[in-house]
Amino acid sequence: AQPVIVAIDGPSGTGKSSTSKAVAAQLGLSYLDTGAQYRAITWWMVTNGIDIDDPSAIAAVAGKPEIVSGTDPSAPAITVDGVDVSGPIRTHDVTSKVSAVSAVAEVRARITELQRSIAVGAARGIVVEGRDIGTTVLPDADLKIFLTATPEARAARRSGELRGVDVHSTREALLKRDAADSSRKTSPLAKAGDAVEVDTTDLTLSQVVECVVTLVEEKR
Ligand code: C5P
After folding, report:
1. What percent of the chain is predicted at pLDDT more than 90?
2. What is the 1 CA–ligand 1 centroid distance (Å)?
3. Is any atom of ligand 1 closer than 6 Å to the C-beta of 99?
4. Which candidate, 11, 36, 149, 181, has a CA 20 to 30 Å from the CA of 97?
């Protein structure tokens, strides 16, 4: 079979990661978490004392960190300059800073190039999740999915993942990040014209996965 490329975009907490990993595992495809790449470069900026409020300072060093993404859906590790940052990229600190770093055009150019080379190299095909995959990174993807859910459902899922954090503050932080990601100039979070929108509010994970797997199979 020809390699199949699936783009899964949408705001935070819509189930992109869980869905993408499960679809890739079920179909024997590679998997790429592009949010993890933006988190990894943000972690590097924070660790190296770069001023996150200064886009030109970020742009000047955007090419420095070497980011390597694992593409196995059952263990998608990510390293920066050889250091496994799978844990550190999920901290509250990195989460609160990632939108500012990912809005810098030089950062996006660099990471987009990396994403395209990974997608092209996936022999059996790949599921790529993010915010601008269907619109910018892989506009010729075989299938584009745009996941949505109500802010309440998304906040409830996130606070379930981050035990101990209350739903209200999770909801505020999540909406703030989505507003920043949707309003930036370079490649904002957006639904591609030819994407299939799936509202996951009242669906279980396995229902969403089944829906996407069926759509992929129809394309093959
Ligand atoms: O998906 P995740 O929540 O890990 O993404 C973290 C951040 O990375 C997003 O809030 C966004 O700022 C950035 N991102 C992006 N483009 C992508 C994927 C993620 O700008 N394709």
Report:
1. 91
2. 31
3. yes
4. 149
Segments making up each domain of the chain, as ranges: 4-219
pLDDT of residue 162: 66
* Average model confidence (pLDDT) across the chain: 96
* Residue 192 vs residues 9, 103, 136, 196: alpha-carbon distances, Å: 9, 19, 9, 9
For the Cβ of 130 lying below 6 angstroms from any atom of ligand 1, the answer is yes
**What's the topology of domain 4-219?**
Rossmann fold (3.40.50)
Cα-Cα-Cα-Cα dihedral sign, residues 117, 118, 123, 125: negative
What ipTM does this complex have? 0.99
Question: Ligand 1 in contact with 9 (CB < 6 A)?
Answer: no
Kindly report, residue by residue over 147-196, the tens digit of the pLDDT: 999 999 999 988 877 666 788 888 999 999 999 999 999 999 999 999 99
13 assigned to a ligand binding site: yes
Cα 28 to ligand 1 centroid, rounded to whole Å: 25
The residue whose CA has the least distance to atom 16 of ligand 1 is 131
CA distances 6 to 76, 108, 186, 213, Å, are 17, 20, 22, 10
Query: Is the CB of 38 within 6 Å of ligand 1?
Result: yes
**Residue-wise pLDDT tens digits, 120-129:** 999 999 999 9
